[in-house]
Amino acid sequence: DTGVSQDPRHKITKRGQNVTFRCDPISEHNRLYWYRQTLGQGPEFLTYFQNEAQLEKSRLLSDRFSAERPKGSFSTLEIQRTEQGDSAMYLCASSPGTGGGNEKLFFGSGTQLSVL
Amino acid sequence: DQQVKQNSPSLSVQEGRISILNCDYTNSMFDYFLWYKKYPAEGPTFLISISSIKDKNEDGRFTVFLNKSAKHLSLHIVPSQPGDSAVYFCAASLFGNEKLTFGTGTRLTIIP
């Protein structure tokens, strides 16, 4: 039973460059979430998908951020024209999403982004 | 607007004693509460949860207490073990929505 997988684990980039992260959720999990965590803070919600549909986006998700989940399986998070303030741990999580509520999220190990 | 608050950034406890981590929330519409544990360079791992219809839930060494009138929950770990040293996050969700709102975390250090 594989958990949530994220790639890459670490990414160092120069300001202004574009970066893309990938998340593979637990198979058969319908919901997929992206969170961002900065030092000293808890994970902050960015966006989530129910299958391939992106149902909610946080106001934290500026126009430079875009997320996709084609075919309702893996997801990608792209950040265009990176800024130093984008440096953070980007966490992906999935849940069964059966609609009954009260489900726990299963998190991946995250992608640590450093923007120089 | 921090809807879930963990006011103690850190806590040190002797091995074998009880660890008590606290969490307060402001949104009375939250109805499901969870504790996650996080080691450095890893994602959060689910520990224990409680629904708003209960006031206590136990799982082995871990017990979560919920006081809805005070909008407060706590996590008790007894006895504390060195492997419990980690950052603990309190999280909450609204009915029918699995999106979690997290607190800022408490770093627990168990002293051998």
Short précis:
Chain A has 116 residues and is an all-beta fold.
Describe the main β-sheet of chain A briefly: 7 strands, mixed
User: Which runs of chain A of at least 5 residues are low in confidence (pLDDT < 50)?
Assistant: none
What average pLDDT do the residues of chain B reach? 95
Helix content of chain B: under 10%
Order of helices and strands of chain A: EEEEEEEEEEE
- Backbone structural class of chain B: mainly beta
Number of helices of chain B: 0
Q: How much strand content do the residues of chain B show?
A: over 45%
Radius of gyration of chain B: 13 Å
Identify the most extensive interface between protein chains.
Answer: A-B, 29 and 29 residues
Q: Taking all residues together, what is the mean pLDDT of chain A?
A: 93
**What is the β-strand count of chain B?**
11
Mind telling me the C-alpha Rg of chain A?
A: 14 Å
Shape of chain A: globular
Low-confidence stretches of chain B: none
Contiguous helical run count of chain A: 0
* Total beta strand runs of chain A: 11
Q: Could you spell the SSE succession of chain B in H and E letters?
A: EEEEEEEEEEE
Q: How would a textbook summarize the main sheet of chain B? A: 6 strands, mixed
Explained architecture:
The complex is a heterodimer of chains A (116) and B (112). Helix content of chain A is 0%, strand content 48%. In chain A, the strands form two sheets. In chain A, strands 2, 4, 5, 6, 9, 10 and 11 form a seven-stranded mixed sheet that branches. Chain A has strands at residues 5-7, 10-13, 19-24, 31-37, 44-50, 53-57, 65-68, 75-79, 88-95, 106-107, 111-115. Chain A contains no helices and eleven strands. By secondary structure, chain B is mainly beta. Chain B is built from no helices and eleven strands. Chain B has strands at residues 4-5, 10-14, 19-25, 30-38, 45-51, 56-59, 62-67, 72-77, 86-94, 101-102, 106-111. In chain B, strands 2, 4, 5, 9, 10 and 11 form a six-stranded mixed sheet that branches. A five-stranded antiparallel sheet of chain B has the order 1-3-8-7-6, with no helix packed on it. The mean pLDDT of chain B is 95. At the A-B interface, strand 5, strand 9 and strand 10 of A face strand 4, strand 5, strand 9 and strand 10 of B.
